[in-house]
Amino acid sequence: MKTTDLTTLSNHAITMIAIQQVQNFLSRTYVFRYNENTHRIVYKRISDAEEFHYLSDYELNLMLKDIGNANIPCSKDLLRKAIFASYVQKFNPFAGYLNNLPEWDGKDYVSLLASSIITTNKEYWQSCLKKWLVAMVASLKEERVISHTAIILGGTHGIGKARWFHSIIPFELQEFIVPFTGITNKKQFFKDFETNGRCLCFEVEHINTQHGIPLDQLFAQLLSLYETGFQYWFNEDEIALVNEKNVQFKAVSVEEKVLISFFETCNGSSKCIYATGSN
After folding, report:
1. Which residues form the Virulence-associated protein E-like domain (predicted)?
2. Residue 218 C-alpha from the chain's centroid
3. 132 and 250 in one domain?
4. Would you say the pTM of this structure is higher than 0.70?
């Protein structure tokens, strides 16, 4: 049997041999993945039917114990080097989910989902929801795509606004995804009205959080819409419509209320008073 004389090796070579020994043990015992979205490593034992979970110091200590029981010399620093080496396979949970969706069966699940919320403007709600959902899928599919809009639901406290948003995210993605959404119990909430064009605001009358929409089929439809060129962004005319619809949600400050109560804009024939901002 051929052996290596460690006295003839450099410290770097000795370290690399030790790392290889540890990696061989880890490969026989665990499965590791590097999450490209969270930039963290997840793992599970090969022998167990457990789900992948994040690697923490607690798990590292358990691994050190297993490695020691196998009579392999290893420190926590060496273990970290072995795990964080390039042999750990990278994965993207978003791409993994979208690439493994079933074929869309042709049913309009977007419209069914839209009908689970009753708003004061049905057609506008359906149109905006469809664009927002496809934009979300597009941003998951392509790094260059950014979803520029957020859906804001306003309505009575406790009717299920937050629960509804949670209900439309597949279980596989709930840990990773942060959709651009908002909820409020107030009807008038815009203070910075200049930025309102990015918000798709709706007054909600009723929500069915138990809609039972099959999310895999919903996302299969959204993916199909994206891949067939559906326009998920808002053009100039559509942005103008969003701004028009959002006027009703503008919050009027106390100062503005006073000005409106005591002053009015002059027309060409009326007598006016000029004033500066400090006045």
Report:
1. 98-170, 180-250
2. 17
3. yes
4. yes
